[in-house]
Write a sequence for this structure.
């Protein structure tokens, strides 16, 4: 196929870049690069301050913290890539574990049916979030902030009213406890560290999300919905369905986090801490997701969770006042935002003709 | 054009402008000159203000119809109606002789009308091949292991871009690395690949360099040679005359002229688009002030 020659010709191709330069470009184009570098730096720093961080016990604690954060962070990262936001993961975690615990302790249900019902309740929350966002076109930050407040208030009030206190325990005598514990709570002792099965869930969620994002049509729809919503819609990308499904995904992740916590404590404690809700978003942003959508990765969010956990445990093990952690996290977030901005500008720079 | 098709009459009088022996890729395309899309007395009103008033035109396969006019002449409204963003209030739009009324751009696209928008929107951080296939990704394997055919998609993207004259492209680069002309080419290549029959190109609002313009015109003529009915909306008569077969002049929402390449040369065309008298006055004033101008 030859096209009609025109009286003037197109610009000659630019000279090819050197292989080293191309490799650098490729590396910089990866959303997770900055968080990986930062994690290595933080691990080295705290390993010098507190060598016990690298003992099996220290590693087990870090990974344990990272696992739950990572599951939520990965789900939120997928949503951020599609240009949306979810504040309600944490409260869905608490809420769904409360539903399970109440059904078991108050109504005498078996654990498995109770878990099924709480999963359905969590998915319903996700569905409401998703449908509200796509039907009203309101910013998902505000919509999920509203559902977060509603659920937070409701769960505290209902638990106090039904159970008489903010704490429900003693689930280990319920029917199905052994099998539930095998799936969500089994641990392995290696040296002085106790590794929990939540690690495998974290790994599984990260791998699944990563595969879905980069290797499936759904993943391309996620990237397209966040990167260019109007053209994506015109090209036939099911933006609405994708968004709702992603909200279902974060709700399911919230349920998983809640269930893992529930089985670990064999009970649930309602903890009215405001601010813990934001940490999944922080983790995703540290992992390289842009708040504007269209860019980010699941692996990055997992690395972000690891970074978060290393910093938190490192500060404790180094014997510092744990309250420094928040300040440290703020600095980290700021650095991540700046690094993401640099990467984005670099990628968006249109070559001059 | 395939060898069996006679060159169009006007091409003989402009042998320098284009080759008549360009090869068509699609043997099933209708012979050049068949009207694909026909507009009959199309009217669009915004409230009481007419944006298009009884516009009639025929868009033929294998021809480039240039829509020319000043700002506010109704060019954008025409693009919106053709691409399904807006519905017309009166008149008919006939696709292969059947009246159609699109409810959405997606519907228009499904019927084979592809539009290259003025803003050339791409997902900037997404790679070129992911942008190319956005919404129609090729897959392999069976569910739940159905996955993107990434190698195939990359190859197809490179091939499709080469078809419209953009060679040497790295399909893994983010689309933001493409220049405006190349984004035009990407959209046109996509339309060609997915079997569009009508291609509406709304010229970029961003200023294009000459070489970027060359890319656009090159891909427009590639689409023409594949037998598409091309609508090129522009205000640059110089470029329009290089590739256009027919010129639809709009003024105040109505058709002010429907000319073929035989009817006008580029100066006449410019004069007509600029409203004739205004430009003549301008030229005479300039010449009076600067006698060295011819």
């Amino acid at each position: 196929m030859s096209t009609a020659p025109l009286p003037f010709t197109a610009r000659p191709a630019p000279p090819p870049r050197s292989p080293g330069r191309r490799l650098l470009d490729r590396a910089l184009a990866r959303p997770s690069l900055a968080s990986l570098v930062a994690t290595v730096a933080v691990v080295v720093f705290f390993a010098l301050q507190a060598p016990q961080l690298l003992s099996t016990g220290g590693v087990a604690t870090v990974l344990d913290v990272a696992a739950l954060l990572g599951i939520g962070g990965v789900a939120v990262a997928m949503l951020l890539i599609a240009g949306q936001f979810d504040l309600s993961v944490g409260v869905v975690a608490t809420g769904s574990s409360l539903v399970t615990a109440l059904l078991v302790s108050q109504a005498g249900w078996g654990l498995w049916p109770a878990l099924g019902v709480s999963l359905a309740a969590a998915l319903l929350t996700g569905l409401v979030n998703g449908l509200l966002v796509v039907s009203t076109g309101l910013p998902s930050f505000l919509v999920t902030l509203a559902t977060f407040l509603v659920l937070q208030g409701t769960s505290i009030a209902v638990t106090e009213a039904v159970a008489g206190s903010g704490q429900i325990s003693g689930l280990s005598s319920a029917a199905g406890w052994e099998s539930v514990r095998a799936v969500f709570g089994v641990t392995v002792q290696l040296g002085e560290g106790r590794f929990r099965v939540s690690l495998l869930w974290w790994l599984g969620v990260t791998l699944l999300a990563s595969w879905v994002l980069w290797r499936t049509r759904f993943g391309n729809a996620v990237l397209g919905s966040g990167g260019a919503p109007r053209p994506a819609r015109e090209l036939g990308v099911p933006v609405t369905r994708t968004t709702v499904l992603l909200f279902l995904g974060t709700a399911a992740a919230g349920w998983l986090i809640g269930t893992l916590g529930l089985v670990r404590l064999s009970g649930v404690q309602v903890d009215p801490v405001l601010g813990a809700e934001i940490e999944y978003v922080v983790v995703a942003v540290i992992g390289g997701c842009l708040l504007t959508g269209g860019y980010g990765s699941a692996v990055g969010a997992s690395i972000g969770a690891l970074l978060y956990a290393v910093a938190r445990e490192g500060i404790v093990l180094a014997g510092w006042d744990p309250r420094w952690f928040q300040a440290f996290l703020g600095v980290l977030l700021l650095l991540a935002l700046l690094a993401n901005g640099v990467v984005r500008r670099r990628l968006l720079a249109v070559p001059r003709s | 054009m395939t060898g069996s098709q006679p060159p169009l009459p006007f091409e003989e009088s402009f042998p320098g402008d284009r080759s008549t022996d360009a090869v068509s890729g699609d043997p099933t395309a209708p012979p050049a000159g068949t009207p694909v899309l026909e507009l009959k007395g199309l009217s669009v009103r915004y409230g009481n203000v007419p944006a298009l008033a009884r516009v009639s035109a025929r868009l033929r396969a294998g021809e480039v119809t240039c829509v020319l006019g000043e700002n506010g002449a109704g060019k954008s409204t025409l693009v919106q109606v053709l691409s399904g963003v807006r519905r017309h209030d009166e008149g008919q739009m006939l696709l292969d002789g059947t009246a159609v009324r699109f409810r959405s751009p997606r519907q228009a696209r499904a019927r084979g009308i592809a539009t290259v928008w003025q803003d050339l929107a791409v997902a900037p951080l997404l790679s070129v091949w992911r942008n190319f296939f956005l919404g129609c990704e090729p897959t392999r394997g069976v569910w739940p292991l159905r996955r993107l055919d990434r190698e195939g998609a990359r190859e197809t993207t490179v091939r499709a871009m080469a078809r419209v004259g953009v060679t040497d492209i790295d399909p893994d680069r983010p689309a933001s690395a493409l220049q405006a002309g190349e984004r035009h080419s990407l959209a046109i290549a996509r339309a060609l690949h997915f079997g569009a029959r009508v291609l509406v190109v709304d010229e970029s609002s961003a200023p294009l360099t000459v070489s970027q313009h060359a890319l656009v015109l090159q891909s427009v003529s590639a689409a023409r040679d594949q037998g598409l009915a091309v609508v090129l909306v522009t205000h640059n008569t110089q470029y329009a005359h290089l590739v256009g077969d027919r010129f639809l002049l709009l003024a105040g929402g109505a058709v002010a002229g429907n000319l073929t390449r035989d009817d006008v040369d580029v100066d006449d065309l410019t004069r007509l688009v600029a409203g004739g008298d205004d430009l003549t006055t301008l030229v005479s004033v300039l010449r009076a002030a600067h006698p060295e101008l011819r």
About this structure: The CA atoms of residues 52 and 78 of chain B lie 7 Å apart. Chain B touches chain A through 56 residues (CB under 8 Å). Chain B has one domain: 9-122+178-289.
